[in-house]
């Protein structure tokens, strides 16, 4: 599982758009030179953008800039071979030279220029913007010739005027990954996503990376911008958020199902990450879906 650096856009095309249907989304932590717009039409799981982690569900729409590591990791049940469970989405790739420096430097392109700059931290769109942008993205693969280009430009203009958006990666996040790092981080991500409901030790994670626990701790903090313990807590709390909104389970049951050994620790970690108690979170977001788990990313 190595970093995907291949060309995603044909040399004779202005950009690329794909309507994805698969048992699960690409499970590899990766980055690439293109800007990327991705909307989830079907499927649930955990989304990683730089140092940001939160659950995703249908309607999730995110814009990422060049070389920003990302991963939409489908929930474990999507890897179990159930053919009735599928994922679906639309993804768009384009280079900055789609517009060209001559246009981007002009006043008329100021909002687009600002949008592209903000995308380097990843942007999640919500509300009316998300609904309208998702509709346009679903229609885009059927368009041909210059109509496709016009539709993409209009989509970017829509996003550039939106106030219903949230920056994802931290302001100080920088991509320190190399190809060999993504392979190592993929191993850790895959292991955590498979076993987060069980007890996971730092020693076990370090062994996957072929490192000592001390070296792994330093390595993980450098590349993830957080400790391994914090990363594991975010995964568990994200899963707990999903259970709170989708299942009729009591809080204690959700805590243990999410990998926490004590209810008190679960309640503390949940409040630290979401600013809510579990029951208050359920009441606040039962109808609107996943609001995210990292309060520091709301802009």
Automatic annotation (TrEMBL):
<dbReference type="InterPro" id="IPR014710">
    <property type="entry name" value="RmlC-like_jellyroll"/>
</dbReference>
<dbReference type="InterPro" id="IPR011051">
    <property type="entry name" value="RmlC_Cupin_sf"/>
</dbReference>
<feature type="domain" description="HTH araC/xylS-type">
    <location>
        <begin position="186"/>
        <end position="284"/>
    </location>
</feature>
<dbReference type="Pfam" id="PF12833">
    <property type="entry name" value="HTH_18"/>
</dbReference>
<protein>
    <submittedName>
        <fullName>AraC family transcriptional regulator</fullName>
    </submittedName>
</protein>
<dbReference type="Pfam" id="PF07883">
    <property type="entry name" value="Cupin_2"/>
</dbReference>
<dbReference type="InterPro" id="IPR018060">
    <property type="entry name" value="HTH_AraC"/>
</dbReference>
<keyword id="KW-0238">DNA-binding</keyword>
<keyword id="KW-0805">Transcription regulation</keyword>
<keyword id="KW-0804">Transcription</keyword>
<dbReference type="InterPro" id="IPR009057">
    <property type="entry name" value="Homeodomain-like_sf"/>
</dbReference>
<dbReference type="InterPro" id="IPR013096">
    <property type="entry name" value="Cupin_2"/>
</dbReference>
<dbReference type="InterPro" id="IPR018062">
    <property type="entry name" value="HTH_AraC-typ_CS"/>
</dbReference>
């Amino acid at each position: 599982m190595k970093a995907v650096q291949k060309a995603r856009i044909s040399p004779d095309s202005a950009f690329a758009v794909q309507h994805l249907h698969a048992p699960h989304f690409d499970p590899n932590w990766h980055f690439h030179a293109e800007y990327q717009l991705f909307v989830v039409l079907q499927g649930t799981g955990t989304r990683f953008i730089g140092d940001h982690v939160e659950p995703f569900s249908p309607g999730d729409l995110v814009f990422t800039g060049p070389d920003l590591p990302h991963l939409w990791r489908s929930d474990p049940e999507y890897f179990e071979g159930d053919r009735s469970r599928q994922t679906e989405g639309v993804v768009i790739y384009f280079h900055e030279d789609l517009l060209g420096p001559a246009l981007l430097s002009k006043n008329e392109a100021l909002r687009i220029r600002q949008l592209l700059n903000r995308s380097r931290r990843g942007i999640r769109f919500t509300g009316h913007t998300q609904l309208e942008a998702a509709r346009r993205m679903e229609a885009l693969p059927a368009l041909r010739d210059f109509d496709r280009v016009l539709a993409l430009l209009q989509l970017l203009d829509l996003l550039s005027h939106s106030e219903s958006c949230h920056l994802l990666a931290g302001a100080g996040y920088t991509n320190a990954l190399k190809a060999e790092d993504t392979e190592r981080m993929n191993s850790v991500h895959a292991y955590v996503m498979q076993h987060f409901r069980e007890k996971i030790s730092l020693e076990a994670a370090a062994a996957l990376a072929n490192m000592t626990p001390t070296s792994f701790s330093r390595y993980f903090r450098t590349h993830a911008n957080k400790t391994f313990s914090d990363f594991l807590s975010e995964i568990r709390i994200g899963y707990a958020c999903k259970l709170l909104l989708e299942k009729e389970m009591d809080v204690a049951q959700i805590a243990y199902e999410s990998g926490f050994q004590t209810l008190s620790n679960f309640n503390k970690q949940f409040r630290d990450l979401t600013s809510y108690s579990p029951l208050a979170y359920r009441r606040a977001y039962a109808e609107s879906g996943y609001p995210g788990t990292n309060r520091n990313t709301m802009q």
